[in-house]
Amino acid sequence: MLGSIRPKDTLDEADVRYGLRMLLIDGILGQTMIVLFGGAFLVAFALLLGASNRVIGLLAAIGPAAQMLQLPVVWLVEKVRARKFLVVGSLVLSRLFIVVVALLPWFVPQPARLGLFLGALVCFFALASISGCSFNSWIRDLVPEETMGRYFAKRMSIAVTVGALVSLAAAFGLDWYERAASAPLPGFSALFLIAAVVGMVDVYFLARIPEPRMAPGGAGGLLAALAGPLRDTNFRRLLLFLGSWHFAVMFAAPFFTVYLLLRLELSMSWVIGLAVFGQLMNVAFLGLWGRLADRFTNKSVLAVAGPLFMISVLMWPFTTMPDRHMFTVPLLILIHALSGMSAAGVILGTGNIALKSAPRGSATAYLATVALVSGLAATLSPILAGFAADWFADKELGLTLTWLQSEPVARAVHLPALSFRGLDFLFAISFILGLYAMHRLLGVQEQGEVDDKAVRAELYAQMRRTARGVSSAVGMRQLTAFPFVAFRSTVGRLGARMGDGAGPPSPDEFPADLPDDKDEW
């Protein structure tokens, strides 16, 4: 095992192919751990421990804030120069704190649980930040650049699909346990213990991925290494875009679930169902965005996917006028379809453009700077949004169209055209901030970039091909049928390549999954 931890001077094609297979398994197991120990499950557990709204807000900020710890990690990576060793060691320690959280209800008195819970999460995310910085640099030197878009799209597709199924199974399991037992906390403890086991198995497969030896570092230490990204004019523009984009998204995203539960008064089954539908739409379009990124550029993909995502944010206030209406549910379905589809392109594009912009062999400082800027923006944004939500709580902006007539019968018809109150203002502000972020993207240069019109044309062509054969006389039937057809065909292709079923492949099936021709990865 120790031998496999050491970097290799050179990697041949067989090493790269083997590493990509292990990285695929890591994506599946890592996503499984994340959905079991995160999101709604972690928030619900905190509420059971007695967390207030301010504690929930702090909980949301811990993860992004931990990314900023990657700044000193750059020095550590350059000093140790064994990225896999740092990843494996930090992840083992980090995931032990999942066990600590799981055992809190059993061994810690009630008054001390919440404080220890937050402390354990700080340790969990802080140690994970060491892994993140080392992992990004390591994988940047491993994955072939010419197939990076398609590979990570495929990896994300499989991981998100498995994560969606696991989250549904976990939610049903918790509901069943809550009905069968009087105390729900043991159910969460069992869920987190499963997450810890999955996380440790994930570390085993990570340790099997070969690591190319780092290129010689430059002179001058940490400050000199960090000065490199800041001296790079194009990379500074990229940092400005990524920071403003994360600030815009995090200004609204933490409040989507709050809006569904409190403003629209939907049940948890509806909330989970909509979230899973969005994830499935994400999977359906990851392959398409990956092909577009490889054929055109990541910037071109972002120029199309980014505005689509912001449009989905702006649509949230129109689900109430000022209360629920007959189009509320159709609008929610459309919002989650559009956000899932566009988020796939945004996540893939932002991740890949940062990887491609970082010089091969010296990516550690560049990617740590990205994590620092993105983490700072994603930490400050929800905190400021929380204060803004309190200020807008009793504010309302309405616009009503009125039809008056005196003949033959006097009457007045009032039609609400616009109604913003409370969280609606946050979504509108997020949309405006998102437009500014897209403006900053225009200054970023990427080799081989094309006009985003070409990407839109290819995207629409794919959508038309998918909808071909559907009767045009039915009108809207094309729009409602398309997402399901796209998802079915995408999963079908994955299933055909990965075995007889549509599920994730077993390790024995991976050699057939990655063909010899790199262009087909």
Task: Give a structural overview.
By secondary structure, the protein is mainly alpha-helical. The chain folds into two domains: 214 residues, MFS general substrate transporter like domains (Growth Hormone, Chain: A, Up-down Bundle), CATH 1.20.1250; 240 residues, Up-down Bundle (Growth Hormone, Chain: A), CATH 1.20.1250. It contains 20 helices and two strands. It has a two-stranded antiparallel sheet. A hairpin with a 5-residue loop joins strand 1 and strand 2. Helix 2 packs antiparallel against helix 9, helix 4 packs antiparallel against helix 16 and helix 13 packs antiparallel against helix 14. The protein is globular, with a radius of gyration of 24 Å. It starts with a helix and ends in an 8-residue tail after the last helix. The C terminus is likely disordered.
Distance between the termini: 29 Å
CATH topology of the largest domain: Growth Hormone, Chain: A
Seen as an oligomer or otherwise, the chain set is single chain
Structural class: mainly alpha
Number of strands: 2
**Overall 3D form:** globular
- The share of residues in helices is over 70%
Number of helices: 20
Q: Mean pLDDT, nearest integer?
A: 75
CATH class of the largest domain equals Mainly Alpha
Task: Round the Cα radius of gyration to an integer and report it.
Answer: 24 Å
Number of spatially distinct domains: 2
What's the architecture of the largest domain, going by CATH?
A: Up-down Bundle
Largest sheet: 2 strands, antiparallel
Order of helices and strands: HHHHHHHHHHHHHHHHEEHHHH
Unreliable runs: 469-521
Proportion of strand residues: under 5%
Strand order, biggest sheet? 1-2
CATH H level of the largest domain: which superfamily? MFS general substrate transporter like domains
